[in-house]
Amino acid sequence: MKIREASKKYAVPRSTLQDRLHGRVPEKPRRMGPDTILSTEEEKKLVDWIISMRKCGFSIKKDDLLDTVHAIIKGDGRKNPFKNGRPGNKWYHLFLKRNPLLPHRSREGISRRRTVITKESIEKWFVTLQEYLKQQGIEDILDDPTRILNGDEISFVFYPTTGDVIASQGYKNVNEAQTGKEKEAITILLFFSANGEMLPPSVVFPYVWPKKDVLSMPKDWFLGKSDSGRMESDLFYDYIVKGLDNWLLQQKTKKPVVIFVDGRRSHLTMKVSQYCSDNQIILYALPPNSAYIMQPVDVGVFKPLKSEWTNMLRKWRAHSKTVNSALIKSSFCALLNKVLNNKKLDESIKNGFQECGLYPFCSDNNVDYTKCDQDTLDNLLDETQNVFVPKICPEEFQLSDFDSATKVITNIRQNLENSGVDVSVVLGEIEKQRLMLNESLHTVDEFPISIKLENDDNNDIDNLVIPDSDENKLWNSDCF
C-alpha cells in the first residue's frame, strides 16, 4: 500500500508515516500525558514493598501508601502538584491502574464478633509462616531461640492504684492524695529473644528531649521523643538501626532473624522494611487481635513487669526520703532499671515464647486455645440453642444444668464482654428458662393431667386430646 493511500484509509498523517518509514522517530512505546511524580523504578519499589509486606502478614492500607509517597517527596524536596505534598485519590487510583498486580479491595464493615481470633486462624498462621520460611530456604530459624524475637510497646504509669486499705469501722474516707499528674505515663519499647534475653530498651519522652545523664539512664538504653509520647515510625526505625541491629551484631547472632510484631502502623513503613530486607531481618506480623494468645510479651512478660513496677513505686513512696513524693522523669529510668534487672524475668520471657508456640515451634501442644473467645462463644451459642427452647421437657433437662451454665458464663464473663457479648442478657435468659422449668415441674405435681380419648375402642394415641386448661398450656405433645 502506498503512503498516501494508507494515510487516507487509517486517518494517520502522511508525514507521521514517512517519519516512521525513514527512521526519524525511534521505535519504542509512547506514553501519553505528563511524567509521573515518582519514577518507574520508584513505583516498582513501592509495588515490591507492598507485595513483600503482604507475604509477611501486613496489610498496607491506602493511607499507609500515601504517607510513604509523601515521605519520599518530602525527603528530596521534589516539586509536586499535591496539596501539602501528599497525593490524593486521583494519584492513588492512577497508581493502581498502572500496577495491575495490586488489586484494590474495599474495606467491609464487619461486626466485632467476626474479627475475634479463632483456633483455625491461628493454625493457618503457623502453616503460612512455615511455608514462607521454607520458600526462603531459612526454615532453620525456628530451631534457634537466639534468632527468634518479639517486642512491643508498654506504658509505665507514674501513679498506679494504691490498692485496698484497711480502716476502722465507721471510717469511710480513706483516700490518698496524689502529687502530680494522675495519668502521666512513659512509653517503653522492649524486645526479647526466645532464649530469655532482653535487648536494651527505648524510652520515649513526650514533648521534650532531656539529656541521658539528667535522666540517670543506662548507657546502652535509647532515648526518643515524640509529641504524643508514643512510639512513632521514625523512632521505631532509629531503634531498629541503632539498637536492635547493633545488639544482634554485638551478640554475634546468626542472620537472618525473625521478629514477630503486631500490625501497628509504625512497623509498616517502607523505610523500615527496606532496611530490614537489606540486613537480613524479617519482620513478620502476628495474627490480628491475637496479642493475648500469640504475642509472648503480652502473654508472659508485660503483666509481671507492670506488677513489679507497681510494687517498686509503692516501696519508693514509702521510703523515708521520698515518702509521698511525686515521681519525676529524672528518677524514672533508675527505678525502671531495677525492675528490668529482675532475675526471674528471663524465665517469664521463655515461658511467653513457649505458651505462644513460637519456641519450641509447635501450635498443637503449647497454644492455649481456650483463650479463643470466638470458639468459646460459638460453643456457648450452640449449647444455648439446644437448651433455650420455648418448650421445656423435664425428661431432658434438670435445674442443675442451668446452674452449671450460669457458673460457666460467670467465670468467663470478662472474655465474653471483650468479644462484644452482653453477658447480662445471656444470664437473664438462662434464669428465665430455669424459672420456666421450675414452674413446669411444680405444675406436674400439683395439677395432674386428665386425658380423654375420643375413641376408647381403638385407643389410638394419635387421637389423644389434652384438655384446654391454663395449667396444661405449659405442655406439648413433644413431651410424650
Automatic annotation (TrEMBL):
Tell me the GO molecular function terms.
DNA binding
**The HTH CENPB-type domain covers which part of the protein?**
30-105
Alphabetized UniProt keyword annotations? DNA-binding
> Do you know which Pfam families this protein is assigned to?
DDE_1
User: What Gene Ontology terms describe where this protein resides (cellular component)?
Assistant: nucleus
Q: Where in the cell is it found?
A: Nucleus
- Classify the source by domain of life: Eukaryota
Is Metal-binding given among the entry's keywords?
A: no
Protein name per Swiss-Prot or TrEMBL: HTH CENPB-type domain-containing protein
The species is Ignelater luminosus
